[in-house]
Write a structure and sequence with these properties.
The protein is of the alpha+beta class and 105 residues long. Helix content is 34%, strand content 15%. The protein has helices at 11-20, 35-47, 52-57, 76-82, and strands at 2-6, 26-30, 64-66, 72-74. It has a four-stranded mixed beta sheet, sandwiched between helices.
Length: 105
């Protein structure tokens, strides 16, 4: 099962949740609802090499997709590109992002 770490206030996460919430084989984990889930995500983010650029930029790194064999893909667009034909994703308002400068999550 692929775990998808999200937060309901993140525009990219909202889109990921809409695409995968009802599909079998995916578990949506909202890191803003349970401290245990946040700690699990932070342990992954702070230690996994896939997050090196995320840590360097000081960003969050969500949505984050982790498959059964431990492969980590950060960002909905990257996950969609790797998983086959691109599914259309809705555009959201300019500045609707997690970063303070409005550039993304």
């Amino acid at each position: 099962m692929t775990k998808i770490y999200v937060m309901e206030s993140c525009p990219d996460c909202i889109q990921a949740k809409q695409l995968y919430d009802s599909k079998p084989g995916y578990e949506i984990i909202d890191i803003g609802k349970q401290a245990r889930d946040l700690k699990e995500f932070l342990a992954l983010r702070d230690n996994h090499p896939a997050f090196a650029k995320v840590r360097e930029r000081g960003t969050i790194g969500i949505p984050c997709f982790v498959n059964d064999n431990g492969k980590v893909v950060i960002s909905l667009k990257h996950y969609l590109a790797e998983s086959g034909p691109m599914q259309p994703i809705a555009e959201y308002a300019s500045g609707a992002a997690c970063n303070l400068d409005g550039t993304g999550c």
